[in-house]
Structures are given as structure tokens and as C-alpha cells.
Design brief:
The complex is a heterodimer of chains A (425) and B (290). With 425 residues, chain A is an all-alpha fold. Chain B is α/β, with parallel strands linked by helices. In chain B, helix 2 crosses helix 5 and helix 6 packs antiparallel against helix 7. Classes of the chains: A mainly alpha (425), B alpha/beta (290). At the A-B interface, helix 13, helix 14 and helix 17 of A face strand 1 and helix 4 of B.
Chain lengths: 425, 290
């Protein structure tokens, strides 16, 4: 890792830059994972009095607004040169955090569907602006060689914290922890963004160095937005998010599974799932650095396929408590794809395209896929499709993607190697 | 589920597959369950399963771990491979009760016709027996290692290179592949239909581990005798076997170290396509303008 070299050389601004990026990315993802994805359900159903169906529509609307705002923001960041202006990006992020702090403080007092709807639009807009801006920090703060481990660190931190606290998915719990964490972040980020300081001055021009600015997959040639490389990664990541949401949205509504895992009263279970997230995130960081991106996609689809196979099996045959092995494998698959998602878009970008590429990548593959899978889940439920059949569909999709990627990667390569071995040199 | 239950589970599932009329299987992996009705066969991996007094269960019971307590009637067969089997005074089993291992406590008055088919598999071995088995393993490994080392030294060299120069990657891949594939094969077995695939997979897994053993042997032996890869691999594999046995006397670490080395070798074999090419992690390429 270059990080250890920077520490040895006492290049403290660069070292602090790593920490800043991990903190911003992990905090943003933690906010998205807990407060938005899980807290919103509680907020809508318990405090506002909406049905689960209405809240799901609200969440889908949130995803759709977020993707539109993210795309506009991403394009604007690149077009107006903000992607290469560290201080400007920090100022935008500061604004996002201030808005999100206000949203967090007001969430527990929402009482009507209209307020809930307005809150969702504002929340979606803040996420849409914040996401590409956060990703674009990478070209200033993290060298290309260390993006895998840094993505792993952010993933491990976000998921470990999300599993350990809060253990109750209630908006009040989320609001307290978020507000407490955001208040100092507003001050620190405000200082970095608006006051002259040595740290930002030292890091501001880093993106001009190829070792920081030019992503791994942009070497030797830049990845264009409409290229096969970018679109195929987009399609695969879309598949990952779609499959994840399609399965998870149903699993969290199944008491037999959710109260023995993510909502277990036993804190040890939360700790175990958080620990698995950490271990698998580290593994994913190692694999991302040492293999091509298709291998990680293969692994993610394989893990999702296998995990849903276990769920399907358990739905059909299990009579005891739901085995913890299933959520543990699920956690592993999620960690793997999150690391991939954090690292792949910056690595397909340059400082001139980072805003656009990360917005398209995370917006289309992440938010839009979530929106569509939510809609599909609602449709499937309206058709009274049983849990086993629902998870079988998810499993079939995972295995299909797995098989397609497998055939295009390993089998093809192995045959080629075997042929080369047989040929006279 | 404990890892040591995996072979027993495969045996149980093979027995279930051979039993006519069994199409559905349920498993108990922990906690306490009262069986009332359900699948054709119930596999107890862990926890406690109870057939309540006054109830009749029309399933066969396979005990691999935990405890199966019978107070009522089991209208089927009971097979015990390990774990505990207890029966109250009112217990009744209409089919056979085949015991291959584990402990039994049957109350007088119970109609549970226990027939011990085989002695428990986990017996303490005498030092002579242990030495004999080790010798046989060493001879077998030496033969396989010698053969593979002599015919395919380039493959072993590639795997060895990955183990030495990329141990973190190899170890990560080895652990991930082993855990995932092991779980996959076990779950495949539960479908009954895929039991042959499970058996094939486990046999394949054993072959891969044997290959990994040979690769470790090559790595160890090559330092001593680089000019004669066959002999070097055979000697290295035997040395690793004996070293692992000796390390086994050290608590915790003794068992863990050889396992980690083997998993690293498995990972190295995977990332090198079993030695067909040398593993080279991607390097950041040069940058072109434009």
C-alpha cells in the first residue's frame, strides 16, 4: 500500500486525506443505509401513519429523485470544473450535511403525508448532490493504487456501525445518533471548506498527478461514458443492486428471518454480522487490488445466488430456527459489492469525468435499480406471490448473471491457456 | 453447523437417498423443536428434537448431532450416526433403529429395537496404529507428489510462486473458495436430487486439497533438491505431513498453521488456473494523453 509509504515519508496531509475520504464516504453510506433505508419505513408507518405499501412508493420516489439530481450534479461538477476544485467540493458537501442535519432533526416531528412527501424530496435531493460530490473527492485524496483498501475501510466502517448501532430500526434512535455525529462534522467540514488552511492547500492540486487522478481502468486509454467497458460495468452493477434489493426487501418483511439476524435481540448476532462485514470487506479490498473487476462481479453474483439458494431451501425445508449462515453469507455478498461500487467508478474516471461517471454509476446502477426492484417487489406482492417463489426468482437472476459472467471470463480464459500450452513455442 | 458434521451429513443424505419413499427432508440445526408432522425425513444436526408423548410422527429420524428425544411414536426408521438418542418409557419406533455411533439412553418399557450396526468411528488409536496410518499417508503422498512433481514441475512452480509472492491474495481466495464451496455442496445435498453432485464436488475438493498438498511439498522440497522435482516434491510433501503432525501437539496454533498453509495453496492453485499460468496482479499502466 502507498499509505504506509506516505506515513514513512511523514506526508501528513496525504495521510489525513485518506482518513477524510474514508470518514466522508463511510458516514454518507451509513446515513443512507440506516437513516434513509431503514428509518424511513419506521417514520412513514409508525409516525406518519402510512401503509407499508405507501412508504415503499415513497422510497421508490426518493430513489428516482435522487438519480435525477445525481445526474444533474455529476454533469455540472464536470462541466463547470468543480470536480477539480477541492475547496468547491468541500463547500458543496458542507451544504449537503447542513441540509441533512436539518432533515435529521425534523424527521421525528413529521406528522402528515404531505410533510413526509416534502421531506422525501429534500432528502433525495441532498443524497443526489452529496453522492457524486463525495466520490469526486477521491481524485484529490486517495491514490489509485490504494482505492481497493480505502473502499474496503469505508465499507467495513459503514456496515459495522450500521449493524452495531442502532439495533432498533426506529427513527428516533437514528435521529439521535445521526445528529450527534453530524454536528461536529458540520464544524470540521465548514472549517476546511471556508477557512484558509494548510491541509486543503496541500491537497488541492493532487488530482493533477496521474497516480491520484487517472483511474486504474483508464490506463492507457481513458474510459469513455458510452464505451463497452463502462456500460458493461454499469449493467453488471445494476444487476447486483437490483438482485440485492429484490431479495432484501422481502427478507426484512419476514419475521422468521429478520428477528434472528438484523433485528435480533441478541447483541452478539449484530456484532457477528458486523464482524463478517469487516472481514469480507477486507477480503474484497485484497481481491479488488489483485484481480480484474469481472472476477469480483462473478464472486458477488455467485454469493448472492448461493445465499438466496439457502433462503429458498430454508423456506421449503427448514423447521428449526433460521440458520445464521444465511445472513452471514448475505453480509459477505453485500460487503463485496459495496467495495466494488466504491472503487470501480473512480477507477473508470479521470478528474474531468469523475462527477459524471460516479453519478451515472451510482445513480443508475444503485438508485435506479433500487427504484425498479422496489416497484417489482410491490408488484410481486400485489400478485400474492409466496416467499419461496419470490426468493427463487431472485436466486434465478443471480445464478443467471453468475453463469454469464463465468462463461465470459474463466472458462474462456482457461481454454485459451490450455491451447497456448499445447502450441509449440 | 459444525464442520465435522459435514461428512456425517453426506453419509446421512446418502442413506436417505437410498431409502424408498423419501422425497422431502427437514433439518434441525439448533434450538429445541417438537416434531409433530412434516417431511419424510428429519435430520438432527444440533439442538434438541422431541417427539412428544402421545404424538405419532410419520418421518424417519436421522441423528447426526444434538439430541433426539422420543416420548411418542416414530412411524419410520431411526438412524443415529452421532449425538444422543434418548427414549422414554412410552417411546415406540415402528421401523429399525440403526446405531452407528453416539450415545443412547433407552428407558425400560420403551419399544425401541436398537441394533448397533457399527462401533463408534471416533476411537482412540494406539500409538502403533497412529504411526501406521501416518506411514501409509506418507507413502501415498510421496507417490502422488513424486509423480506430479516429475511430470508437471512447471505447474507446481507457478502455484508455488503465487504462494510465496502473493500469500495474502492466495490465502484470501483459498479461504473464500473453501468456505463457499463447502457450504454450497452441503446445501446441494439437501435437495436429494443433487446428492451425486455433492459427492462429486467433495471428491473434487479432496483432489484439489491433495494437489495443494503436493504444491506445498514442491515448495518445501524444491529448496532442498531443485534439480530433481519429482523427488523433491515427494520429500517435501512427506516433510509437510510429518511437520503438521508434530505441530498438532501445539494447542490451537498447531492445527491452524498447516490449515492456513493448505488454504493458501488451494487459493494459489485457483488463481494460477492450477498452475497453467503464473499469477500476476494487475499493475497500474502508463497514461496516454487524450
Amino acid at each position: 500500500m502507498q499509505f504506509t509509504e506516505f506515513v514513512r515519508q511523514r506526508r501528513w496531509p496525504t495521510v489525513v486525506g485518506y482518513g477524510l475520504f474514508v470518514a466522508v464516504l463511510a458516514a454518507g453510506y451509513y446515513y443512507n443505509l440506516t437513516f434513509v433505508q431503514l428509518g424511513l419505513i419506521d417514520l412513514g408507518t409508525r409516525l406518519v401513519g402510512l401503509t407499508r405499501f405507501q412508504v415503499s412508493i415513497g422510497m421508490a420516489a426518493l430513489a428516482l429523485v435522487a438519480v435525477v439530481v445525481a445526474l444533474v450534479t455529476g454533469v455540472a461538477l464536470d462541466r463547470y470544473g468543480l470536480s477539480t476544485d477541492l475547496r468547491a467540493k468541500l463547500r458543496v458537501l458542507w451544504g449537503v450535511i447542513v441540509v441533512q442535519l436539518a432533515l435529521t432533526l425534523t424527521a421525528p416531528v413529521l406528522a402528515s403525508p404531505a410533510q413526509f412527501g416534502g421531506w422525501i424530496v429534500l432528502c433525495a435531493a441532498s443524497i443526489g448532490v452529496g453522492m457524486p460530490t463525495t466520490f469526486s473527492l477521491v481524485v484529490d485524496l486517495v491514490p489509485v493504487a490504494d482505492r481497493g483498501p480505502v473502499a474496503a475501510a469505508a465499507t467495513a466502517a459503514a456496515y459495522f456501525l450500521a449493524n452495531v448501532y442502532p439495533t432498533q430500526w426506529e427513527i428516533e434512535s437514528f435521529s439521535i445518533i445521526m445528529s450527534a455525529a453530524m454536528a461536529p462534522a458540520v464544524l470540521v467540514l465548514g472549517y476546511l471548506a471556508f477557512r484558509e488552511n494548510a491541509l486543503v492547500d496541500a491537497l488541492a492540486g493532487t488530482h493533477e498527478r496521474p497516480s491520484f487522478g487517472i483511474g486504474r481502468f483508464c490506463r492507457p486509454n481513458r474510459v469513455r461514458t458510452g464505451s463497452y467497458a463502462f456500460l458493461s460495468a454499469l449493467a453488471l452493477m445494476f444487476g447486483v443492486y437490483f438482485i440485492d434489493s429484490l431479495g432484501f426487501l422481502r427478507i426484512i418483511e419476514t419475521p422468521a428471518y429478520i428477528y434472528t439476524s438484523w433485528q435480533s435481540p441478541d447483541f452478539g448476532v449484530h456484532l457477528l454480522i458486523g464482524g463478517v462485514h469487516v472481514v469480507t470487506a477486507v477480503m474484497a479490498g485484497v481481491l479488488y487490488t489483485n484481480f480484474g473487476r469481472r472476477w469480483l462481479f462473478l464472486l458477488v453474483f455467485g454469493l448472492f445466488g448461493f445465499t438466496h439458494l439457502m433462503y429458498v431451501f430454508d423456506v421449503r425445508a427448514g423447521i428449526g430456527d433460521a440458520p445464521l449462515l444465511m445472513p452471514l453469507f448475505y453480509a459477505g455478498a453485500v460487503s463485496f459489492y459495496t467495495v466494488l461500487n466504491f472503487a470501480i467508478w473512480p477507477d473508470m474516471s479521470t478528474p474531468e469525468t469523475i462527477g459524471r461517471h460516479s453519478a451515472i454509476g451510482v445513480g443508475i446502477a444503485g438508485f435506479l435499480a433500487t427504484f425498479l426492484s422496489t416497484a417489482v417487489v410491490l408488484y410481486i406482492k400485489s400478485e400474492s406471490v409466496g416467499l419461496a417463489r419470490h426468493l427463487t426468482i431472485v436466486d434465478a437472476l443471480s445464478l443467471l448473471f453468475f453463469f454469464l459472467v463465468l462463461v465470459t471470463v474463466y472458462a474462456h480464459r482457461m481454454v485459451r491457456l490450455a491451447h497456448q500450452r499445447g502450441e509449440p513455442s | 453447523m459444525r464442520p465435522e458434521s459435514v461428512p456425517l451429513l453426506v453419509v446421512a443424505l446418502l442413506l436417505i437417498a437410498a431409502q424408498p419413499g423419501v422425497e422431502t427432508v427437514t433439518t434441525v440445526v439448533g434450538g429445541s423443536e417438537d416434531i409433530e408432522t412434516g417431511a419424510d425425513a428429519v435430520v438432527v444436526l444440533d439442538g434438541t428434537v422431541t417427539v412428544e408423548s402421545g404424538t405419532t410422527v410419520d418421518s424417519s429420524l436421522y441423528v447426526l448431532g444434538g439430541t433426539a428425544h422420543i416420548d411418542g411414536t416414530v412411524d419410520g426408521r431411526v438412524v443415529q450416526l452421532s449425538g444422543n438418542l434418548t427414549a422414554g418409557a412410552d417411546a415406540r419406533v415402528t421401523g429399525s433403529v440403526d446405531v452407528y455411533g453416539g450415545t443412547q439412553a433407552v428407558a425400560s418399557g420403551a419399544s425401541v429395537p436398537v441394533s448397533v450396526v457399527a462401533e463408534p468411528l471416533t476411537q482412540e488409536r494406539s500409538p502403533a496404529e497412529a504411526a501406521g496410518i501416518l506411514l501409509m499417508q506418507a507413502v501415498g503422498l510421496a507417490l502422488v507428489g513424486g509423480l506430479v512433481g516429475r511430470r508437471y514441475p512447471d505447474l507446481l512452480a507457478n502455484v508455488g510462486h503465487s504462494m510465496r509472492h502473493h500469500p495474502v491474495v492466495s490465502g484470501t481466495v483459498g479461504v473464500l473458495a473453501t468456505v463457499t464451496l463447502l457450504a454450497l455442496f452441503v446445501f446441494m445435498a439437501f435437495t436429494i436430487v443433487l446428492i451425486p453432485v455433492t459427492v462429486l464436488g467433495l471428491v473434487g475438493g479432496l483432489v484439489v486439497f491433495l494437489y495443494a498438498y503436493v504444491c506445498v511439498g514442491y515448495l518445501v522440497g524444491h529448496r532442498l533438491q531443485p534439480d530433481r522435482p519429482g523427488l523433491a516434491t515427494a520429500a517435501g510433501a512427506v516433510a509437510f505431513l510429518v511437520g503438521s503432525e508434530l505441530l498438532g501437539y501445539v494447542p490451537v496454533v498447531g492445527g491452524l498453521v498447516p490449515l492456513l498453509v493448505l488454504l493458501t495453496a488451494v487459493g494459489a492453485a485457483v488463481v494460477t488456473y492450477f498452475g497453467l499460468r503464473r499469477f500476476q496482479p494487475p499493475r497500474l499502466g502508463a497514461v496516454e494523453d487524450g
